[in-house]
Amino acid sequence: MTDLNQVTLMGRLTDDPKSFNGKSTVAKFSIAINKQWKDQSGEQHEKVSFIKCNVFGKFGEWCAGNLSKGFQVIVSGELEQNRWEDQQGDKHSEIQVNVDFLRIVSKPRD
């Protein structure tokens, strides 16, 4: 059986998408996902996760030209883990979403 690698997230763009041209265009942006909850004593808490996203090809070009900071979007795609070692020998890792579906939920707040 093949493994499944699919994620769907909703959040707000933290900056305008950046477009990069190589073999094909890729638009890169991050979304902020807010979680709010109350603990047992009733105290309010908030946690924000920042998720990097990549959109390739013509769809990436469209995203770079039509989205901006503050847009609330739903993204769906495949998770990709990047690993590297810096000059000091420290190992790093990050998870990104390679987006194949994006829906605008709302435009930036004024």
| CATH topology (level 3) name | OB fold (Dihydrolipoamide Acetyltransferase, E2P)
What's the CATH architecture name? Beta Barrel
Number of helices, counting only DSSP H or I runs of 4 residues or more: 1
Strand order of the largest sheet: 1-3-4-6-5
How many β-strand stretches? 6
CATH class: Mainly Beta
Q: Biggest β-sheet, characterized?
A: 5 strands, mixed, barrel
* Net shape: globular
Tell me the count of domains: 1
Radius of gyration: 16 Å
Low-confidence stretches: none
CATH superfamily: Nucleic acid-binding proteins
Share of helix among residues?
under 10%
From the helix content, strand content and strand pairing, which structural class follows?
mainly beta
Distance between the termini: 48 Å
Q: H/E series, N to C?
A: EEEEHEE
Walk me through this protein's architecture.
This protein is mainly beta and 110 residues long. The chain has a single domain (7-106), classed as Beta Barrel (OB fold (Dihydrolipoamide Acetyltransferase, E2P)), CATH 2.40.50.140. It is 9% helix and 62% strand. It has 1 helix and 6 strands. Strands 1-3-4-6-5 form a 5-stranded mixed barrel. A hairpin with a 3-residue loop joins strand 2 (18-21) and strand 3 (25-38). The longest helix is centred in the middle third of the chain and has 10 residues, at 57-66. The radius of gyration is 16 Å and the shape is globular.
